[in-house]
Amino acid sequence: MTEPIDIATLVAARQAGYSLPAPFYTDSDIFRHDLELIFGRHWIYVGAEPEIPDAGDFITVDVGSASVLMARDDEGRIRAFHNVCRHRGARLQQAGRGVLGNIVCPYHQWTYNLNGELIHCKHMGADFDRSGFGLRPVHVENLAGLLFICMAAEPAPGFDALRTAMEPYLQPHDIPNTKVAHQSDLIEMGNWKLTMENNRECYHCVGSHPELLVSLLEYGFGYAPSPQNTKQIQGFNELLAREHGRWEGYGLPSREIDRLEDVTGFRAVRLPIARSGESQTPDTKVASSRPLGAYTHADLGGLSFWTQPNSWHHVMSDHVVTFSVRPLAPGRTLLRTTWLVHKDAQQGVDYDLERLTSVWIATNKQDGALIERAQQGIASLAYQPGPYSPFTEGLVEKFCDWYIGRLGAGLKDKR
Amino acid sequence: MTEPIDIATLVAARQAGYSLPAPFYTDSDIFRHDLELIFGRHWIYVGAEPEIPDAGDFITVDVGSASVLMARDDEGRIRAFHNVCRHRGARLQQAGRGVLGNIVCPYHQWTYNLNGELIHCKHMGADFDRSGFGLRPVHVENLAGLLFICMAAEPAPGFDALRTAMEPYLQPHDIPNTKVAHQSDLIEMGNWKLTMENNRECYHCVGSHPELLVSLLEYGFGYAPSPQNTKQIQGFNELLAREHGRWEGYGLPSREIDRLEDVTGFRAVRLPIARSGESQTPDTKVASSRPLGAYTHADLGGLSFWTQPNSWHHVMSDHVVTFSVRPLAPGRTLLRTTWLVHKDAQQGVDYDLERLTSVWIATNKQDGALIERAQQGIASLAYQPGPYSPFTEGLVEKFCDWYIGRLGAGLKDKR
Amino acid sequence: MTEPIDIATLVAARQAGYSLPAPFYTDSDIFRHDLELIFGRHWIYVGAEPEIPDAGDFITVDVGSASVLMARDDEGRIRAFHNVCRHRGARLQQAGRGVLGNIVCPYHQWTYNLNGELIHCKHMGADFDRSGFGLRPVHVENLAGLLFICMAAEPAPGFDALRTAMEPYLQPHDIPNTKVAHQSDLIEMGNWKLTMENNRECYHCVGSHPELLVSLLEYGFGYAPSPQNTKQIQGFNELLAREHGRWEGYGLPSREIDRLEDVTGFRAVRLPIARSGESQTPDTKVASSRPLGAYTHADLGGLSFWTQPNSWHHVMSDHVVTFSVRPLAPGRTLLRTTWLVHKDAQQGVDYDLERLTSVWIATNKQDGALIERAQQGIASLAYQPGPYSPFTEGLVEKFCDWYIGRLGAGLKDKR
């Protein structure tokens, strides 16, 4: 326990089918490797296009000690830069969001345009070559209104495949023409991987999520048939086939795509919603009377979309709820949840904020408590990896496989 | 100062008769070794039997990042388990005390009985062998009502000798038939060894503990005769012999036992109380009118009992006050103090809570302030180990000897 | 990023003309070296003589985890000792200031006189040689009322040269006959070197310090002529020459001394003040009607005095404002600011506290915010050292040169 951790050895020794050894959740050196090799080198979901609708709008995105400034430039393109002045390193923007003309460092007023070029700095002399001191760019991609960044010099491969596969699923919902109805930041007292593992199974739903289970049919969330529930899963699959047929008749791709093993890994499927079949609300009816995109049916189920290593999204006929996970410390994680409705929907007229947000606000809080308990137990000397359920935790296993594989690859590259 | 600490070298270099070098009080690597090799391998005092009087009652015990669930099973036996689910490691019980039927993990409802057996878990398949996933047991011993645990696979030797020696001293006071009148948790801003060293001498009493000194005769607490006080100690020893004779006449073993050097080290002696001779109260008279055990004399002095590495206890005719020390961080320690009175004593009728607890609440607070000052000074670059008084700090030295010896033995085992 | 830092390599690789690599501001191992090799071995400014005007007066000075007790003894000499008892290491004085007869450790009442001699301790036996257990002394120097300590066994060389050079500048202002009108402690959320670098340039003044710029002529603070401002600097230099002539006519040495590269490095110059030319106040008029020393002219400008590694001072005709920087953690620094006025000046009669202190209270707060931003940006993976302005950041560069040189020398000594 007190000897320095050899991460490569731990990676190589990982036992399939079991939760990870404790250091992956608690060790500060592994956490630094997570920031460098996982969050520093892969495509990270950071927000939705409607968070920066107009030229000059910006948000900042903090991942570990990194901070990224993401802004829409005057031509409407979305740009991302490290939020660090090239002079003496001051953080350029501290606020989480706002509007910018140029980017002016408050320390010595070095000034960058929204292309990141250093356009003005005093006292540096006539020979100073400003072109060598532009802001360090960060790769950014806009997937049908969902914004991803990659902080590596060479971006991780596979975003094109993600786009090709997912645009047909997402575009009909016209996320660029939504607006942010609400955003919540929850700090969970656990490692970011516990947040992700918790998201990748619904084994815990029955015991913890009464609000969510009104609308959610758990068999859509990573269940495999077992002797105990063959019949129920068969029934669910018949419903799924029927609904997929109906939705695809509307032009809405619905079938499961599982590319979780890719470097830019993801999974998606359109799933039925219980009861009225409309939305993840307390009564399963739509929360907003303004449907998204060109569709007027309320009962379009929910398109669920998961990405490695840090996001998930549920897209319904009336709203989108989208989740971005950000590691803060080995035992502390930010979960940012954003609710999107049609950009013309009016609060109090077309939607009620409480009805829109209450299910996931309750569910996030419940998950946060479970994640904290898991972190507490895992931090104990007595913890040893335990077995995943082959029937309900297959997607947790896939997350761990991806993580261990990508960490191992990153370690090899460093040598 | 900035080079990594070589603990084995520090252990070997320890200078007898002097306080320990600073890293033993401040270094986080030594702290982890303390948790692993001292608290993880020795018998630790954690509470009194009356804290869990009935079947299903439990307490949790946190030591560093470890958490132990201690419960009374349906047959009345006391059991202890690591408070960690065998599935994905969630902490089973967060509350410090309560009542349990079975132990149900709140994450995925894995269910254990009070024998620690996994009796129920969903979705693990027909082939899953539950017997391999019982809770990890922790050794537990009940010494006449005082509860000790050992977290090592193979418990530390010597508990039988402790029991043989101490049961005759403790049993007459019938601790199992007491109840908890009060419990206080004090967080001291110092290393746990400073808490222990402070307990093992009364050199500091005169300057700091006015309330305690009303009832306490300091010469019973680690004093050796010196030219300055030969006479006083002789007088004290005559009193001691007289009282020992009287108490042993009642069937109460009283003479000093010093086995502080044993692996399961301890010391005990029955000591006179000043003035009325009854109890550690503001006026030295009993605090509770219901005597413990079968004895009706109020003036039975106080049986003091100390164990390595983390406890001390004072047993009087009317009440017991018992102290359990738990390391939280290199510079932070929990001191849990519990006051026990006869189980039929009624608050406000048979005892007044303020009278019962005020001496040790004041004394603990004073000690906490001294321990904080010691930690502050020792954390300074300028600290160097200082000399123990040969006349008043012999038991501090014995504590340090034990600690250094046990740490050294543990380091050898690890190699 | 995750490999252990090799400090000597970083020191050797430092690029001239650029800000320091991130670990110098963020790494805890480098911070410990800063405490040991920079603050532990050099002359540190810690306070002004009027803070301890009478026999028995003391202050404590905390630098990292070290604490120093500085007191005036019965003969009026100023003494400094490590604030650590030689018995079991308790901190002797927790309060920041007060009055002492002897120094009595509150733990076991070991008692030292103000010469640091152990004059009384109980229970140590007849053979105990108290003379081996005096308080560990700290070197102290009083430079015309400004107090410096050196915690090394052998004090850093160069204090005599500092005294010879600076006494003629400082003595006319008679600091020993001032009193503390106000003292403020500001905790800045950045590394101590960012506090120092920020002090060593006025490039940032225009954008951040409206209150200070009323009285301050920025060209006195580290500017070099550039094509853009040759004329202004020429004008400033003519003013400077004129004023230096006038002040030296009064017997006030005024010309710049730059010994920043010395082991005991410093710089001083008397600078004109804008508008009425009197004092760093909101309207540039004196804040106190009692002039310091024997001078009755109000327009004496301001003698600015900077020392490596941790202080700066502005001495005007009516008051002194003096700054002591103390590292608390890699990203946390205490800035103690003290305002001194004539010892007979009466608050509300001779000076108004708000007028006296408002400029630097506002300026310190602004600087603290800039330093926090710099720390945030530098802590990001994306930070890379940036270029100093050759025209306004030459003194920042000199600070970094001194620091890197002294750290390198200290590392060599350790080997």
Task: Report on this structure.
- Three copies of one chain form a homotrimer.
- With 415 residues, chain A is α+β, with helices and mostly antiparallel strands.
- Chain A has two domains: 44-142, Rieske Iron-sulfur Protein; 160-404, Naphthalene 1,2-dioxygenase Alpha Subunit, Chain A, domain 1, CATH 3.90.380.
- Chain A is built from ten helices and 17 strands.
- In chain A, a hairpin with a 6-residue loop joins β12 and β13.
- In chain A, α3 crosses α10 and α5 (192-199) runs antiparallel to α10.
- The model of chain A has no long low-confidence stretch (mean pLDDT 96).
- Chain A binds chain B through residues 1-2, 19, 22, 197, 203-204, 206-208, 226-228, 370, 373-374, 376-393, and chain B through 29, 32-33, 35-36, 40, 64-67, 82-92, 94, 106-109, 122-126, 128, 133, 136, 151.
CATH architecture level-2 label of the largest domain in chain A: Alpha-Beta Complex
Separation of termini of chain A?
25 Å
Q: Give the CATH topology of the largest domain in chain A.
A: Naphthalene 1,2-dioxygenase Alpha Subunit, Chain A, domain 1
Q: Approximately how much beta-strand content do the residues of chain A carry?
A: 15-25%
**If you compute it from the alpha carbons, what radius of gyration of chain A comes out, rounded to the nearest whole angstrom?**
22 Å
Low-confidence stretches of chain A: none
| Quaternary structure of the protein | homotrimer
Descriptive terms for the model:
seven-stranded antiparallel β-sheet; alpha+beta; 10 helices; Rieske Iron-sulfur Protein; four-stranded antiparallel β-sheet; Naphthalene 1,2-dioxygenase Alpha Subunit, Chain A, domain 1; 415 residues; homotrimer
